[in-house]
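Practice set, problem 2.
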Amino acid sequence: MASPFSNFDPNRLLTLEEAQAIEQTLLPAQERFLIRVALYSLRYLKPMAEQAQVSLNQLSPELIYQGLEQDETLLKEEHQSPGFLTWYGQFLIASLNQLRQAGEFCQVSPEELSLEQVIDWFRSQAQQRLRH
């Protein structure tokens, strides 16, 4: 499998408009970073789920690692930095768990999440932490 970003276009990760919208939330830096990570992961995992013919809710850690092992770009990175695929897989799995929670919060599937919905979920998480 070729990487979803083999023909790299930075706008596929995050558009300028999306970056501005995230900054305008005035959420703490950690939340803004996590929103960016969630969007990046969503854009990486959607084609992986489509190729495996499953929804993001059905995408298992095993399928994620299988997809990563077929990504030529990541295999090169693994060759240079052993353990990279394991780290990256854990990164994607953690992000997917957040996307699933955001989907439940917004009552949509993770695939259908909009930027605004992702921001709303992270805002609600930040507010919950402040209350405790």
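Problem 2, part (b): a different protein.
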Amino acid sequence: MRSLSRLVILIALSALLLDACSIYRVAVQQGNVITQKELAKVHPGMDKLEVRTALGSPMLQDPWHPDQWTYVYSYKPAYGRTEVRQIQLQFKDDRLQSISGDVKAEDPHTPQG
């Protein structure tokens, strides 16, 4: 009986030690998620308030370049490579001049499938 209780204790301790060795990783998502559909709502000539209403506040707003807004999004899966997307908006006289970055606006004339 004594050897049986030792065996049970040994198995329980082994299970606890092995469980402590496992690592749980969490997927991390940060920044502004801007879809093609949302970006299609924005076009040159819009003022800053209209752009902020359509896309939300930019993640980065440089105090030395107030006419440049940067929307950044990153996704780090639990196991794998980090995906980073960036969209830059340039304004002149509080009007949107240009859009550049990794996400392109969806063409409204393209058929949806």
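Answer key, part (b): The first strand starts at residue 28 and ends at 31. The first helix runs from residue 2 to 21.
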